[in-house]
Amino acid sequence: MTTHDKSKQLFAEALQFIPGGVNSPVRAFRAVGGQPFFVDRAAGARVWDVDGNEYIDYVGTWGPAILGHAHPKIIDAVRSAACQGTSFGIPNPYEVEIARLICSALPSVKKVRMCNSGTEATMSAIRLARGFTRRDKIIKFEGCYHGHVDSLLVKAGSGALTFGHPDSAGVPAAFTQHTIVLPFNDTESVKAAFAANPGQIAGIILEPVPGNAGLYLPKPGYLEFLREITAKDGALLIFDEVMTGFRLGFGGAQGLLGVAPDLSCFGKIIGGGLPVGAFGGRTDIMDQLAPVGPVYQAGTLSGNPLAMAAGIAALRELHAGDGYTRLESLGAQLEVGLRDAAKTARIPVQFQRIGSMFCGYFTTQPVHNLADAMKSDRERFAKYFHAMLAEGVYLAPSQFEAGFLSTAHTSADVDRTIWAAAKAFKLL
Ligand code: HOZ
């Protein structure tokens, strides 16, 4: 590791003109101390900072870079689309192709509407669920994060949790009065909420595999239970697959875990690293959207040709290759190696993983929900984060984020990461 002089200088300047020096709070390193580095370039599984330091990257631009950074097919697709024009606000053929690809990957998605971020996707899906059911209440779960939508910034994960504002200032109480917040993996509280609000709940929104308070998994039967209780009540089941979509398999978490929601939200991977979001589902629900139906939703840059071209290239590559098998084997290697290293160093770590998503909590107790995740020793995490960074391994700068592998990571990268972790654990 050389110096961080250029990053420090840029951050000092950034602080003068950008709140907190960053355009999204999770980048700021505040949960772990220190200052963020500034990226010069990225390729494959590596990022290089402006001071010339190289890192093995497990953030992967917070999920989109499943094929690694600057994948040649995505770069070519963006380049060729850009030469035809960067935005039209008129339908373009890429929109049809990406919609066809998404619908053919997920049997629950019969129609899809593209937008510009995961936040827009979840915000629109909630509005659509309310418009379709003509009901107001929404159930969400503690620690799940669905972007910075007003009504969903309640007990939210990701940066909201990391920085101690899971219930954001600036959200009028009236905007969240129809939001019911429950613990994840707890069937009784869901039953009680439906019993207390008969015929009033428009839907349940959840990350089927929550990855914004670290990473924990649904207990066996939990998603099936949510599917059943919503169907029985006439409420909609909405999966936020912004992170898990096309990551846990080409069919996302719903394909892997075998539960079909009514609506799904996407982002990240489907834009190949460009700004994107999408939501889709049953035809009768989706046809409530304007211009067909009365639920309004729009966007100047929605279906942007560059983002669509990048997304199409990413999805085609994922569909054609053996990427998911490779990701599973790298994930298993990482899991075994990190578990062994922690055991050898006698550091209690709950290592959680599903496919290419992972997280380690510094606690002796199993983690099934936000309350369990909060028991992790965050000071220990901060030390671990910096020890890994010093060895050239970049993890998300917060305990409450998931790590991501890409198909560009190699077995040697994973070995090096395990070696760095073994060294880091000794310092904790
Ligand atoms: N949705 C991302 C993972 N928690 C965070 C991205 C951001 O907030 O900048």
Question: Mind telling me the CATH class of the largest domain?
Answer: Alpha Beta
Low-confidence stretches: none
Number of helices: 15
For the largest beta-sheet, the strand count, sense and barrel status come to: 7 strands, mixed
Helix-strand pattern: HEEEHHEHEHHEHEHEHEEHHHEEHHEEH
Mean pLDDT: 96
How much is the radius of gyration in Å?
21 Å
Helix content: 25-40%
List keywords for this structure.
428 residues, alpha/beta, Aspartate Aminotransferase, domain 2, 2 domains, 4-stranded mixed β-sheet, 14 strands, binds (4S)-4,5-diaminopentanoic acid
Outline the structure in words.
With 428 residues, this protein is α/β, with parallel strands linked by helices. It has two domains: 5-70 and 322-426, Aspartate Aminotransferase, domain 1 (Alpha-Beta Complex), CATH 3.90.1150; 72-320, Aspartate Aminotransferase, domain 2, CATH 3.40.640. 39% of the residues lie in helices and 14% in strands. It is built from 15 helices and 14 strands. It has helices at residues 5-17, 72-83, 93-105, 118-133, 158-162, 173-176, 187-196, 222-233, 252-257, 283-286, 305-320, 323-344, 370-373, 378-390, 411-426; strands spanning 39-43, 46-49, 54-57, 111-115, 137-141, 179-182, 201-206, 236-240, 263-267, 277-281, 350-354, 357-361, 393-394, 403-404. The strands form three sheets. It has a seven-stranded mixed β-sheet with strand order 4-10-9-8-7-5-6, sandwiched between helices. The protein has a four-stranded mixed β-sheet with strand order 1-2-3-13. A hairpin with a 2-residue loop joins strand 11 and strand 12 (357-361). It is globular. The model has no long low-confidence stretch (mean pLDDT 96). The structure holds (4S)-4,5-diaminopentanoic acid. The site of (4S)-4,5-diaminopentanoic acid (HOZ) has 8 residues, from helix 5.
